[in-house]
Specification:
Radius of gyration: 20 Å
CATH architecture of the largest domain: 3-Layer(aba) Sandwich
Largest sheet: 9 strands, mixed
Order of helices and strands: EHEHEHEEEEEHHHEEHHEHEHEEHEH
Strand content: 15-25%
CATH superfamily of the largest domain: LarA, N-terminal domain
Helix content: 25-40%
CATH class of the largest domain: Alpha Beta
Number of helices: 12
Distance between the termini: 37 Å
Structural class: alpha/beta
Bound molecules: iron/sulfur cluster
Number of strands: 15
CATH topology of the largest domain: Rossmann fold
């Protein structure tokens, strides 16, 4: 079987056909009575057309396929915010995810948490996670392809951060403030969740100010793979990114989970590229090479890297002064001056939680002039 399957899909009305194509031979492990958890992307309560969440048509079609094989299907996620029945059920309704019940799936109502210790992990050695994933015989990662302020791209691997309860996510951002360290933590988490299969809804993805306030963009594909990192490598290729632009891909490459280029994978289907896809200007220069050797060169390299880092910036015209950004900011770098959020740059860790969770898309990712001039 190919490492990754890419099936073209012209719209959500024909998604069942594209899924069958992408999943051909990939569901043979499903046995009658098996509990399968579909870890979808429900980052917020946006309607499906906003392209911030996995489209319910994909989840319904997949649920139908699994139910037809006798599986019990449970759909869930931990969105940004409270991990409670009232909050998550509101997100299910707003995102159209209630419709998956008609396909025989049920929406997760188990909001318990567990703690685990992984002493051998590179970064995430002790953490809380959502226990519903444990009660399944297999987890299927059903993600959405979107831009992401901190990680460059949100796809199969970043979607697994939803295994951390919403209220604790800022704390994990704070603990792993450096983008590369955060990427190590996310890859540790992907190792722990160990999805049996990953499927990407890239029929309509999100470009620009993602992962919640960007613009829907037609991509026209469903991707499937056993290895979530291989799926991400292909998805990144589709939108014009490589391992140097996506820290989780760089980590996966370092750990030997993927090759350096999507072209080195065995891909069933066309490894195409969307022209002029608007990626978020948050490239972390993970392959930044400083010009001098020795300790001085290292210092110079670090200083240059800092100077080229993207940062959050407020679009005052869109801001309504709701203070959500200040509430969610992990290091409390945002204070409200009346109705205006002010960012203390010395405390900001560039996690872009404020940009991700601003309900009005008023926080943007600003690329410094030096980076624009150098086109990094
Ligand atoms: S969350 Fe968005 S709209 Fe609300 S205060 Fe912050 S920037 Fe303004
Ligand atoms: S200001 Fe925004 S990017 Fe900076 S630490 Fe706070 S939430 Fe993260």
């Amino acid at each position: 079987m190919a490492d990754v399957a890419i099936a073209r899909c012209k719209d959500y009305s024909s998604v069942a056909q594209a899924l069958s194509e992408a999943l051909s031979g990939r569901l043979d492990w499903v046995a009658p009575g098996m509990k399968v958890a579909l870890k979808v992307n429900l980052v917020c309560g946006a309607r499906p057309e906003a392209a911030a969440t996995t489209h319910p048509a994909v989840v319904s079609a997949l649920s139908g396929m699994l139910v037809a094989r006798g599986a019990e299907v449970i759909v869930g996620d931990s969105p940004g915010g409270l991990y409670t029945a009232a909050f998550v059920n509101r997100i299910y309704r707003a995102s159209g995810m209630k419709s998956v019940e008609a396909a025989g799936a049920r929406l997760n109502q188990d909001f318990s948490q567990r703690e685990v210790e992984l002493p051998a992990a590179a970064a995430l050695r002790r953490f809380q996670y959502t226990a519903w994933l444990d009660r399944a015989d297999a987890v299927v990662d059903v993600c959405k392809l979107k831009t992401h302020g901190m990680m460059g791209m949100s796809c199969a691997v970043k979607n697994l951060f939803g295994a951390i309860p919403g209220t604790l996510k800022p704390e994990y951002h704070f603990r792993h403030a450096d983008p590369m360290e955060f990427a190590q933590a996310i890859v540790d988490l992907a190792d722990f969740v160990n999805p049996r299969l990953s499927i990407c809804d890239a029929v309509v993805g999100m470009e620009g100010n993602g992962p919640t306030a960007g613009t829907p963009r037609f991509i026209g594909a469903i991707l499937a793979a056993e290895n979530p990192h291989a799926l991400d490598l292909c998805a990144a290729h589709l939108i014009g990114l490589g391992p140097g632009d996506v820290p989780t891909l760089a980590v996966a490459r370092e750990r030997g989970y993927i090759p350096g280029r999507a072209e080195e994978l065995d891909v069933a289907g066309e490894l195409f590229q969307v022209p002029d896809f608007k990626n978020i200007p948050a490239r972390h220069s993970v392959e930044f090479a400083h010009p001098f050797g020795g300790p001085l060169g290292t210092l110079a390299g670090k200083a240059m890297k800092r100077a080229l880092r993207s940062a959050p910036a407020l679009d005052r015209r869109s801001c309504v002064g709701c203070a959500k950004c200040a509430e969610i900011c992990p290091p409390a770098a945002i204070s409200m001056r009346g109705k205006i959020p002010a960012i203390d740059r010395s405390r900001c860790i560039r996690c872009f939680c404020c940009q991700e969770f601003c309900p009005k898309g008023a926080m943007r990712v600003r690329r410094p002039l030096a980076a624009r001039l150098l086109n990094r």
